[in-house]
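User: Once you have settled down, look closely at the record that follows, taking as long as you need, and be ready to discuss the fold:
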Amino acid sequence: MDSPRKNKKLVLDGNSLTLEDLIQASRDPAFLIQLDENAIERIQKSRAWVDSVQKNGSPVVYGINTGFGSKATVTIDREKLKDLQRNLIMSHAAGAGNPLEIGIVRAAMLMRINTFAKGHSGVRMELVETVIRMLEAGVTPWVPEQGSLGASGDLAPLSHIGLVISRGVKRDHESESGQAYYLDPESNSCELMSGTRAMQKAGIPRIVLEAKEGLALNNGTQISTAILASTLYDALRVIRLADVAMAMSLEALEGISRAFREELHALRPHPGQIRTASNIRRLTEGSRLMDRHPEKVQDAYSLRCHPQVIAGVRDALDYIGSIVKTEINATTDNPVIFPELSGEDKAISGGNFHAQPVGFAADLMAMVLCEVGSIAERRIFKLSDKNLNGGLPSFLTENSGLESGLMLAQYTAAALVSENKSLAFPASIDSIPTCENQEDHVSMAPVAARKASTILTNLQKIIGIEMLYAAQALDFRLREMAAGRPEEILGKGTAVAYRFIRESIPFLKEDRPVYLFIEKANEIVRSGEILATVEKTTGQLD
């Protein structure tokens, strides 16, 4: 559905989708989605072979003219192949729990189109075009977050998408169409309704699935990968913000700059360590708060070892990025159609739907993000403790005792850190056999990805709390040094960050409901605007 807001274009060819394009298009409905011309040709070639199997009844191919899972030995009559595909979608739409975010579902739909574009799924162009029209019209299926094991594909959640796309051969009950959000073009707001109604409002016909198409819709890793990709995209920004928060704390605690010198880190050249130390140097350049106490030769680990800790985080995120890049441009179907194969049977059954690589990457994400929050909380604690904060008042309040200041904000950070630790136990090492033991090893990738996403959400709050503390502490330092402007004593980047925070969060003069300050700080972190503002001065942080 074209409209004036469709001012961006994303061309999918099956091979070159990037993380940035995926997330931007999934979160912004202003994208036109197009298929590369060669992709259309590939789709049509693989479909032509499936059509011949559907027409002739041979060869016997899993999921085209057989049952599914442990029922792969059951051959299905030609006249029932359409029923087979619709039955698959209805029976497998068995999810539970809260709905996934709209952006996650849209990302999964985009990746599914990109998989189709590779030309090994055996679907009709009509199906691909239907999914494209849904994305452009703002029709997003309601998909519950629980129910997938991350093997044989994300069967349950992807089937909920299929409910909205497809209809029955002989019947089309609205109650069997699932639910979908419809983006009203006038109000630009989403309304949840039946899949039938959402598609009608968008002017998109629901289709009768042909052979292979139900299986092509629900047999893939796209839900697990969408959650991981979205988490990675936001984590890459949060890590840079963690450097900003740490630099502010370092100055507020009158830290030592020598621990971040380039020649020191060159002797242990982990790429992430070098990048992190460089960020801290750039953010604190010109600071008069650093190195004020020559008698102090070392800072605590939470300050001094920040580059070494974040080294592993940044390097791990690089690895996770390589997994995501591969997965969003992969064929994760079963069976996979190879039109160029000689012989009658051009389908190969395998295990490309198994999401173990995604599960491992998500568990690694959970682990490293935990540590970012853990070391940040230690700096928060130092800022709040009069015995550790270099002469600042207890809990950063002027009337300690009568008032508690930011005392409880540290408790909140500690609770979030502890919660993250409990969530970091790896899901990908678990497996429960299913489907009469045919599917006897599963990845649990969607569970791992959802846990990593929750940990990221908690981490954003922790970083916001650290910024809240650091800005409060820097106010005392500004007063102590009789500085009229923050630029007089703060670093090149930290002065910008301090000003940005103070534009929306005032100095806490007296006790107020602290949750209001925490919520605002969280908004600052989640929006990313503070990072963009800082980087206008420092250049893009690594």
Notes: The chain has a mean pLDDT of 94. The two ends are 39 Å apart (CA to CA).
